[in-house]
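Milestone 3.1: sequence recovery, worked example.
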């Protein structure tokens, strides 16, 4: 296995693993390598330094990643709090209520509740935009699970 640092045409950088150096070239030529940020298939190898464990740069990246994760989790918590405080909870009647609102049969308002994957697909087909509600709590750190 070989890990490559990659860049897309929009300068998004990411990493990917390949079975061999030729696998990247083959997959990129067939349009199978895609930027996870913008879905561009114009991807090229970036200049890489060898991975050396325990460097200050690695420690900084890990610390920064933890800070970003904390900020994202806080923002998601605020989104959930806002929805719970300002939208109507409709439970498992979410799909029916969302369609009723779209069709003008029910009052136009923000709602949240539960829906099955099938119901979500049906809502999307009907032109109803839905999104999952962020989790209620931050995930348990791996160190506490083990």
């Amino acid at each position: 296995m070989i890990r490559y640092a990659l860049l897309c045409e929009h300068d998004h950088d990411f990493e990917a693993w390949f079975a061999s150096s030729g696998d990247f070239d083959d997959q990129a030529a067939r349009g199978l390598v895609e930027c996870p940020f913008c879905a561009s298939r114009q991807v090229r190898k970036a200049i890489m330094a060898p991975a050396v464990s325990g460097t200050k740069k690695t420690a900084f990246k890990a610390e920064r990643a933890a800070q970003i994760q904390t900020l994202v989790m806080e923002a998601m918590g605020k989104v959930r709090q806002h929805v719970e405080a300002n939208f109507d909870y409709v439970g498992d009647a979410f799909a029916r209520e969302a369609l009723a609102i779209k069709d003008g049969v029910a009052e136009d308002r923000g709602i949240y509740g539960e829906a099955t994957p099938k119901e979500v697909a049906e809502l999307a087909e009907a032109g109803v935009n839905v999104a999952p509600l962020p989790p209620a709590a931050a995930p348990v750190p791996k160190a506490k699970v083990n």
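Helices lie at 21-29, 56-86, 94-102, 117-125, 142-145. The mean pLDDT is 85.
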